[in-house]
Design goal:
The structure is a homodimer.
Chain A (H helix, E strand, L loop, with lengths): L19 H8 L3 H8 L10 H14 L5 H8 L4 E6 L5 H17 L2 E6 L4 H13 L4 E5 L11 E4 L8 E6 L1 H14 L5 E5 L5 H16 L10 E3 L13 H15 L6 E3 L3 H13 L9 E6 L12 E4 L2 H18 L6 E4 L2 E3 L20
Helix pairs in contact in A: 1-2, 1-3, 2-3, 5-11, 7-8, 9-10
The structure holds a DNA duplex.
DNA sequence: AGCCCCTATTCAAACGTTTGAACTTGAAAT
DNA sequence: ATTTCAAGTTCAAACGTTTGAATAGGGGCT
């Protein structure tokens, strides 16, 4: 009756997409019937079995594939999420993403991804973008939240509690106790620390936990001159893959130059640990004989470094999976959001930590 | 006239979204006029300046944001792309993605991402998914293409020419010459090689180039017992971040056990190079004194390893950017696709390569 | 006074679905 | 012979845009 773009035998060009209408024509039923059947709607039960079969056959024969945009426009569901990561090419992000990806794929959701580079403005504009694109929910990694979020959201660390937002975060107290306990048991007493960059709640919590753990130990010091803060994540317009390592390296040198004796370093992440370790080696120190280093995250490389890196394992993949699952459970089953899930870290002892040297430090040289 | 969901003063709940219709009502014009003005259509020039301003003001006042789904449904443009990567948490992928991301963001495109895990079935299903989701084009990284692609596509390496698909690929001949030339000049004569996994064209090209480069050199051998193939990318259902390193490690041990003397290794990527290096160290070898190792990619860690890794740099970020730019140029300006862009690698000499030991090899022990 | 045409604006169809309400048909109940 | 009802199916509105075609209002021309 109305216009119809039948391929007219010779389908030159892009092969017009099969619509519900085409299936309906072939099956000799109405569009509604086709929609009902193809969606397995309860109402379709009422249809004659023969009719249903006819529709199914027609759809198969034509290779019908529903139009996502039309369906979403009408139905309000897009089966897509927005994922906000700090930096696409970071080990931390990669680990979490691999968990998120597998979970979303299994559930038939797609996602849009944007890096926020720890910049609040970017975070906010991305949230608006996602909203405009019709995502159903947000997965936010390592970001301080700007306030209430206009969509269901689950985060992976990075911020203090926001009502209605579920957070998957690491148990930093345990992490700190594990690392410091390990070092103390090896005889270390003066610890250098690479803190996460200020403003990052994860970093604050971690630092608080480290100080707490130090106090619980006898005769264990965190000399102020030996705690340095990363700034990496604070800017990072054009990302440089080497940035984090380089910063660790520079901090490593600065620590040695500080002239304060120390026998061990606890870094905020593996990346900076690797950089600092490199600096120590370059200055002629041996690890773990002269200095011990503990990283954080347990990235894939760590067991293959020289020396193998002792580190605190964050089950990044699990954290990503957990976050995704929680969000999906909310979207699909209305499970409420807002809890705080604590994830337990694990100490992985390898070769970069060893007994403290007998002398208070390998570095009692005042200058250089 | 028709139904209208005006917030009725007390807007409880989710704040209904502002539609064109709402703006039209406030500006006292028709919906069409609003659409025209807000899109800066040429036809809008014909409107009275006063009207245009009224519309603009109304839109601003209400905070109008267009409905993406409706617009795309009608207009056929979604400003979104599909990105297919081998493995989300791989250094190679991360490098390329960082280039793609920055380019797409600048152009106002979003993208969906799926890992194909080098599985043809996954690749095909993902392409269908993307098609269904209405993406305008595809960016495919490191995958053998299943045949013609139903959408405009640009790839980053991984396959032999397909008509209509632009490829950004590395110049493997140059890469091989750089690596082998460097090693030969250091006196190395017998080279072990970790090849990429079979079926990957990138791997084949590289291997062909390596053999070619070896022939160009005097007295330079690639003993068959010392070329091993990666299998990593061939399966990889549940991804394990350590997988690639571990495989390199195992290959490293196998090479030593082969009993064939060699003084240098050229690995398919940095990951496997790092693993193999670790194996060599574990077996009591020193690098570069006893054995030299050349990696491939130049991931961020490489300058911080111990020893620092000599490697062939692939400008991954640039490759990603180039690919994205080419695809966008096609979509926005109809620039034709189908070329093959060759990217030049660079040799980065660090500490993992050194003069060949005097003895033909450190490994003239027949057993073990 | 009638006609034409220009300017400024609106109509209404279309994009491809989903879904509440309505419509047939035939058989059972009155 | 009419009404009642259920089973099976279709109508048509709606989702929020974009855009080709149509329209109203005026002013200038003959």
């Amino acid at each position: 009756m109305s216009q119809d773009n039948t391929p007219s035998t010779k389908d030159r060009g892009k092969a017009p997409r099969v619509r519900l209408k085409d299936v309906a024509a072939l099956a000799e039923v109405s569009v509604s019937t086709v929609s009902l059947v193809l969606n397995g709607a309860p109402r379709a039960e009422a249809l004659a079995a023969e009719t249903r079969q006819r529709v199914l056959d027609a759809a198969r024969e034509l290779g019908y594939r529903p139009n996502y945009l039309a369906r979403s426009l009408r139905g309000k569901r897009t089966h897509s999420l927005g994922v906000l990561v700090p930096e696409i090419s970071e080990g931390y992000t990669a680990g979490v993403m691999s968990g998120i990806e597998s979970e979303l794929e299994a559930a038939g959701y797609t996602y849009l991804m944007v890096s926020h580079h720890s910049r609040p403005a970017k975070l906010e504009s991305s949230i608006r973008l996602f909203e405009d694109r019709g995502v159903e929910g947000l997965l936010i990694i390592g970001a301080e939240l700007p306030g209430p979020i206009p969509l269901p959201a689950v985060t992976v660390s990075g911020h203090r509690p926001v009502p209605g937002v579920t957070t998957v975060a690491l148990d930093h107290r345990t992490a700190a106790r594990l690392a410091l306990g390990h070092l103390a048991s090896l005889g270390h007493r003066r610890l250098a620390v690479i803190r996460g960059f200020g403003g990052n709640v994860d970093a604050e919590d971690r630092w608080r936990a480290i100080r707490g753990a130090a106090q619980e130990l006898d005769d264990f010091e965190l000399p102020p001159a030996l705690t340095v803060e990363l700034r990496s994540r604070a800017y990072g317009e054009s990302f440089d893959a080497e940035g984090g390592y380089r910063e660790g390296y520079e901090i490593g040198r600065r620590l040695l130059d500080a002239g304060e004796p120390f026998s061990a370093l606890f870094a905020f992440n593996d990346i900076s640990a690797i950089g600092a370790l490199r600096a120590f080696l370059d200055c002629g120190l041996r690890a773990p004989e002269d200095i011990s280093v503990v990283g954080f995250d347990d990235l894939g490389v760590t067991p293959f470094l020289n020396p193998r890196l002792t580190t605190i394992r964050q089950p990044l993949r699990d954290m990503g999976q957990a976050a995704a699952r929680l969000l999906l459970a909310h979207l699909d089953d209305q499970k409420p959001l807002g809890e705080r899930i604590l994830i337990q870290p694990k100490l992985v002892v390898r070769d970069s930590t060893g007994p403290a040297p007998d002398s208070p430090s390998p570095l009692d040289r005042p200058g250089a």
